[in-house]
Amino acid sequence: MAVTNTPSTLEIQKWRRDFFTEWQRENLFAPYIGNGTDAVIQRIYELRDEGEQITIPIVGRLTGSGQVGANTLTGNEEQMDQYGHKIVIDWARHAVLLNKKEMRKSAIDQMGAVRPLLNDWAAAKLRDDFVRAFGTIQPFGTASSLSGNVQGIPMISATPAQLNAWLTGNADRVQFGNGQATLVAGNFAASLLNVDSTNDLATVAAFSRIKRIAKNADPKIRPLRVEDGREYFVTFLASGPFADLARDPAMLSANTNARAREGSGMDKNPLFQDGDLMLQGMIYREVPELSQLVLKGAGAGGVDVYPSFTCGQQAMGYAIGQLPAPTTRNDDDYGFIKGRGVETCYGISKIVKGRNAATASVAAGTNADWGVVTSFFATASAN
After folding, report:
1. At the top level of its lineage, which domain of life is listed (predicted)?
2. Dist. CA 298–CA 151, nearest whole Å
3. 371 band by pLDDT with thresholds 50, 70 and 90
4. Three-state DSSP state, 247
């Protein structure tokens, strides 16, 4: 019995007009971006009409003891501690070019796909630029220059001298692993080599010390918020350290014993749901894209080390020249070519302050990250 086979030239092929697009994770920094000085990432709009750079004045607190009783005040006045941090902006653009011949052949509405893709690209670039900005250093004397739309020197490509200078300026706001014993003063690489995958994971105990560092840093780090004397900070972590923190017995115990059980308690309990962790005034937010900042093989025995960032207010500046706007190609070959694009103009920078005077732990003539404590952890989830 001979069965008639259908030749490939007669096989039915159907294509949906509707298309699937690859998912882009939303900007997990978004809840911490704001227009006011109380935001972790502050929008700065003064460059929307003109200019390519803006200087943010920073004024330190008064630290003098003043005079009491009848002691003479004349000649004993205190000099204001002033500094200006400059942020530079630049353009970012992208586009897709189509023509009538290719659009006519396509099974999908190519032109309809372009705008959503460009919008997603602009949003993803901004998110990733925030990640890159957290991973930069700006030691004293660093020029206010951009790498793309991010200001500063990427930590993963900085020279040993630049990293050592950054560490020296931020000695009061950095932690390597589980405690300060791992820090080698003025030597970034040697400090990383003390971070191992057994003792130096992200834990509740480690972040309790980091919170104390944030409270005692000089210049002071303004908490995210203060309620009845209780101070709150937010920490952004890559997925590996976040997973280690979530599995820490102290964190598990807190969520097991102290979380609400009644009503819809399970819907908000991080033992069962994805989302932020919170304990002792510290908010922990997982940002998977922070994994791109990994310092590969930099720890003890060649383990990878991940930076994390504990922030108060005014940690970062987001200077906006133009919000994302659609563009169209005018050179259209008599209407045959159709180009659609998007353009935006901005600059992102961690805010830093030059030290005009020495503090108890750090010398003058260095730069301090104004609103960030940086910590470095190995992870059991990746090693």
Report:
1. Bacteria
2. 24
3. very high
4. helix
Only one residue has tokens 């749901």, namely: 273
CA distances from 363 to 69, 80, 344 (A): 33, 18, 40
Neighbouring residues of 326: CB distance < 8 A, sequence distance ≥ 6: 115, 118, 340, 341, 342
Q: Supply the pTM of this predicted model.
A: 0.89
CB distance 134 to 293 below 8 Å: yes
Domain boundaries, the chain: 169-315+357-377
Higher pLDDT, 333 or 184: 184
Residues contacting 80, CB < 8 A, separation 6+? 59, 60, 62
CA of residue 141 relative to chain centroid, distance: 23
DSSP state of 226: E
In a 3-state reduction of DSSP, which class is residue 342?
strand
Residues 6+ apart with CB under 8 A from 344: 91, 92, 93, 122, 126, 322, 323, 324, 325
Backbone angles phi, psi at 37, to 5 degrees: -70, -10
Q: How confident is the model at residue 232 (pLDDT cuts 50, 70, 90)?
A: very high
- Give how far Cα 74 sits from Cα of 71, 107, 116, 316, Å: 9, 83, 66, 39
